[in-house]
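Appendix C: a fully annotated inverse folding record. The material below is reproduced so that readers can follow the format used throughout the book. The structure is listed first as tokens, followed by the designed sequence.
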């Protein structure tokens, strides 16, 4: 519905988008983009999807009801994303998913991420986690509230990233898992 490509210093503020056939908002090869105060619901794949975009700010959004995947998805080696004060709920897979995607090009690592003060609930009936991180290093996840997620709580691993978790600070998060949930915290390198 909303597409930003090969641009920079763009601010998307206070927009709403529903029932997109893929993502409500896509940011592609675009550094220094801000997405804030939006509501993105019941989209076919994602609420917010980004690829190859450094220095993103994703804040104060509500992303819910993604039919196939995630509420917020930061992908493809985009460094220094800030994802804060969002509410992401009732998505089939992850509330917030970050995947460095070596197979898509780039270095396959996301560094310098800050994920803070988000509220994530009722995600993961199709797998994933409240906060899911593949190929994420030297990043901080703090002060988030996760409850009733049906897969993982906070996970960091290597599947498609170039390397596994390293240099992560996971601090002051509150996690209350659903009865059918998996690990509250999970860290794994292959």
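Designed amino acids, in order:
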């Amino acid at each position: 519905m909303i597409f930003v490509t090969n641009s920079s210093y763009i601010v998307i503020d206070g927009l709403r988008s529903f029932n997109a056939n893929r993502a409500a908002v896509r940011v592609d090869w675009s550094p220094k983009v801000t997405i804030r105060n939006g509501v993105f619901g019941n989209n076919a794949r994602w609420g917010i999807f980004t690829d190859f975009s450094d220095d993103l700010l994703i804040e104060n959004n509500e992303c819910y009801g993604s039919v196939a995947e995630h509420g917020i998805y930061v992908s493809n080696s985009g460094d220094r994303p800030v994802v804060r004060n969002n509410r992401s709920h009732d998505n089939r897979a992850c509330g917030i998913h970050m995947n460095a995607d070596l197979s898509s090009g780039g270095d396959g690592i996301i560094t310098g991420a800050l994920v803070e003060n988000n509220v994530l609930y009722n995600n993961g009936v199709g797998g994933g986690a409240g906060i899911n991180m593949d190929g994420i290093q030297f990043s901080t996840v703090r002060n988030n509230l996760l409850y009733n997620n049906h897969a993982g709580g906070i996970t960091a691993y290597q599947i498609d990233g170039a390397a596994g978790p390293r240099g992560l600070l996971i601090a002051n998060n509150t996690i209350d898992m659903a009865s059918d949930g998996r690990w509250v915290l999970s860290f794994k390198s292959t």
